[in-house]
Amino acid sequence: MMEQMPLWAEIIVSLLLVISGFFALTGSLGLIRLRDFYSRIHAPTLGNTLSAFCLVLSTIIISFVTKHSFAAHTLLISFFLILTSPITAMLLMRAAIKRELLRELKKTSEQE
Predict the structure, then answer these.
(1) Looking at the chain, which terminus has fewer C-beta neighbours within 10 angstroms, N or C?
(2) Is residue 67 part of a domain?
(3) In what helix (H) or strand (E) does residue 30 lie, and over which residues does it extend?
């Protein structure tokens, strides 16, 4: 059975969850609305990272307040999300740059 959380903890957790949803929504809208690939990859990466951070912070607060313990597994989840999301975006951007360079080289070689 879960213990009752204090009002201050419920307010903080609720705000963090709303902020997390806002960042996730903003990142998704950026993916849809932005014009080029580089802008599109940037928005969800930032939104995902900030959203995951707020979600994990709210989970840590809930765990600390209700169980009086520190949830280390949530920190590991946030660490891997925060680490892998920007790295994946960087690798995708590098692949797109190489593809554009190869396409330009192919065009110039065909024109000669």
Answers:
(1) N
(2) yes
(3) helix 7-33
> Is position 107 within any domain?
yes
Distance CA(14)–CA(104), nearest Å, equals: 50
DSSP 68: S
pLDDT tens for 45-88 read 888 888 988 998 898 888 888 887 777 788 888 788 778 888 88
Q: How many domains does the chain have?
A: 1
What whole-number percentage of the chain has pLDDT above 90? Answer: 26
Question: What torsion, rounded to 10 degrees, do the Cα atoms 13, 15, 19, 24 define?
Answer: 50
Which residue in 46, 80, 61, 49 sits closest to 15, CA to CA? Answer: 61
Q: What is the mean pLDDT of the chain?
A: 86
For residue 35, the 8-state DSSP code is S
Does residue 3 register a pLDDT over 80? no
